[in-house]
Amino acid sequence: MASSAVTSTSTCFIKKEMDLSSAVSQVASFGSSLKMGSRRRIVRPVHAVMAPPQPQQRPPVSTGSVKHEMTTTEKILARASERAMIEPGENVWVNVDVLMTHDVCGPGTIGIFKKEFGENARVWDREKIVIIPDHYIFTNDERANRNVDILRDFCLEQNIKYFYDITDRGNFQANPDYKGVCHIALAEEGHCRPGEVLLGTDSHTCNAGAFGMFATGIGNTDAGFVMGAGKLLLKVPQTLRFVLDGEMPNFLLAKDLILQIIGEITVAGATYKSMEFTGSAVEALTMEERMTLCNMVVEAGGKNGVVPADQTTFNYLKGKTFKEFEPVYSDQNARYLQEYRFDVSKLEPVVAKPHSPDNRALARECKDVKIDRVYIGSCTGGKTEDFMAAAKIFLASGKKVKVPTFLVPATQKVWMDVYTLEVPGSGGKTCSQIFEDAGCDTPASPNCGACLGGPRDTYARMNEPQVCVSTTNRNFPGRMGHKEGQIYLASPFTAASSALTGYVTDPRQFLQ
Fold first, then answer.
1. What letter would DSSP give residue 210?
2. 126 touches 163 (CB < 8 A)
3. Buried (b) or exposed (e) across 272-281, using 16+ Cβ within 10 A?
4. Across 108-225, where does the E strand assignment appear?
5. 116 φ, ψ to 5°?
6. Would you put residue 206 in left (φ > 0), alpha (ψ -120 to 50) or beta?
7. What one-character DSSP code corresponds to residue 370?
8. Which residues pair with 352 in a beta bridge?
9. CB of 381 within 8 A of CB of 255?
10. Residues 6+ apart with CB under 8 A from 491
11. DSSP category for residue 67
12. How many CB atoms lie within 10 A of CB 467?
């Protein structure tokens, strides 16, 4: 198209030049004849002068992009869109490696897929769609139960390979396929692979960025399109770089780091930006702690979070996936919108006070805040290491909790770990034994639980206007049930410490 436009313009210019030359010749000839016919009137020939043709200005898109170094997110999206180079702000068609949906958004996604592609349409790839019931599972709410039935019917119709079903809600262990919280199940089942694109109908899909992949939440309409087409139009985000160096103190966890960052940049500080985490402190984190870090980037408005894949990543994936994957890494001179640096050795335990994840305060500054309950669970704070951390606090104190303390393992595997893995330094005790000694509630069936409220009969839902310290991810009014409830977001260390005192408590009280 660009070549044709230039040719047309050049032809037009030549034609005009020829017409003008002809006109000049005619005027000169006419002048001569006048001169010959009358000596009193002399008409001199007129000569036209034209500026030389100027080179045509063309937009960069027609001359080719200038090559530049890219960030991890840009590289992943470039490869997924079959492009050698992309720029932040570009809209590109991205081929999707994994699409995840669950019982809350799955029925809507399926409805849109059937409406737009046809009642008898087939999904684009039955092995790239992962469907995980996890939100409103252990409830007698008929509509919630019907959602799971809709998922089951669709998966049977489409022969979906990865459907983690639950049929016996009275005993989750009787359902070998049932997993629990989708984001942790995706990791445990090997669906998170470096360099790939994972989209899910849940805002905390960004959790999977811990594996060096592009993972983000999308709406039902987009998911319905991906279900049929296998691709989605995405705008390439700019990248914010977070460099975390220094040695992590024994009283800090990744939850403290991400709450510190969100408090620093606010809930709008990374709106539609990629948040890339690097530095010696990040490299020292386990995979579960990296997941905590990436899980909450959406609380800062982030499009996605990403941690470069390394040996820790590869070790975690051994035995979980046999699919080949190719990690990508940010170039040395990749362009970042902004860079933030933290020395984690100087940080202290923090909480996010009601009613926003960026309402940061030091835990010790809230020591006079009396609480009514503690909740340990969710995709953010219900992993095996989260319960190990809580058990460490209870073990160190040797005391009983002073407020109801609810424990909701994220997945069936985490639940098993709570009952079987020995806590270091406990003399052979498991987390469940330590929790029982401390007077906590019996660990519940694995699911999202009260993290987002749910039906009124959801275990540990806040049905009264109480004050809760929680390892979850959001503390908006009504998030865990009652609209007048107050939620303090905290690490498992801080949550367990607070359970022991009945007040928001700095874990250093029990760890030092």
1. G
2. no
3. ebbbbbbbeb
4. 129-132, 162-163, 197-200, 214-217
5. -85, -30
6. alpha
7. B
8. 360, 489
9. yes
10. 252, 253, 254, 255, 256, 259, 349, 381, 389, 471, 507
11. P
12. 18
Number of Cα atoms under 13 Å in the Cβ half of residue 468:
36
Cα 178 versus chain centre, distance: 23
With a CB cutoff of 8 Å and minimum separation 6, the contacts of 255 are: 292, 380, 381, 471, 489, 490, 491, 492
- How far apart CA 295 and CA 393 sit, in angstroms, is 24
Nearest to 200 by CA among 330, 56, 304: 304
| Token duo for residue 462 | 């806040």
3-state secondary structure 10-72: HHHHHHHHHHHHHHHHHHHHHHHHHHHHCCCCCCCCCCCCCCCCCCCCCCHHHHCCCCCCCCH
At 131, which amino acid appears?
I
Reported residue count of the chain is 512
Report which of 282, 319, 496 is spatially closest to residue 407, judged by C-alpha positions. 496
Residue 465 CB coordination number (10 Å): 12
Token digits for 353?
């006070």
Alpha-carbon distance 263 to 490, whole Å? 13
Query: What span, in angstroms and rounded, lies between the C-alpha atoms of 444 and 352?
Result: 25
The three-state DSSP-derived secondary structure of 416-468 is: HHHHHCECCCCCCCEHHHHHHHHCCCCCCCCCCHHHHCCCCCCCCCECCCCEE
- Tokens coding 403: 């407020």
Best CA proximity match to 192, nearest among 288, 113, 119:
288
Backbone CA torsion sign across 357, 362, 367, 373: positive
- Tokens at 74, concatenated: 């840009």
Cα of 145 vs its chain's centroid, Å:
27
Q: Tens-of-pLDDT digits for all 512 residues of the chain?
A: 333 333 333 333 333 333 434 443 443 443 444 333 434 444 444 333 334 444 444 333 333 445 689 999 999 999 999 999 999 999 999 999 999 999 999 999 999 999 999 999 999 999 999 999 999 999 999 999 999 999 999 999 999 999 999 999 999 999 999 999 999 999 999 999 999 999 999 999 999 999 999 999 999 999 999 999 999 999 999 999 999 999 999 999 999 999 999 999 999 999 999 999 999 999 999 999 999 999 999 999 999 999 999 999 999 999 999 999 999 999 999 999 999 999 999 999 999 999 999 999 999 999 999 999 999 999 999 999 999 999 999 999 999 999 999 999 999 999 999 999 999 999 999 999 999 999 999 999 999 999 999 999 999 999 999 999 999 999 999 999 999 999 999 999 999 999 999 999 999 999 97
Strand 273-278 relative to strand 98-102, pairing: unpaired
Across the beta sheet with 486-489, the strand order is 360-362, 350-352, 486-489, 467-470, 373-377, 405-408
Q: Which residue has the tokens 């709008």?
A: 268
